[in-house]
Amino acid sequence: MDFNSRKKKNKNNYDLYNENINIYLEENDNYILDLESKVQTLKLIGSNMRDEVKTSNSLLYNLSDQMDNVNRKLTGVYRNVKNIIKRKVKE
């Protein structure tokens, strides 16, 4: 085997090595793009969940205030009915 044929054989191995590396790099790039897409999707889901929680908390806070108002009104009505009944009993 002469030097030139050995050099040519080594070059072919080197080319195969580079091709394999390029294939792996391309696969990695595709995995990275896929991962970036999934991260963006999760980020959007998280953002939507945050907005939904804020809206729900606001609705619950308003409902709590309304229930407090209803409770005060019912307490007043109950007191008035109680007073009316006491007056009717005294008569």
UniProtKB/TrEMBL annotation:
PROSITE patterns: T_SNARE (PS50192). Residues 22-84 form the T-SNARE coiled-coil homology domain. SMART domains: t_SNARE. This is t-SNARE coiled-coil homology domain-containing protein. It comes from Plasmodium vinckei petteri. The lineage of its organism: Eukaryota, Sar, Alveolata, Apicomplexa, Aconoidasida.
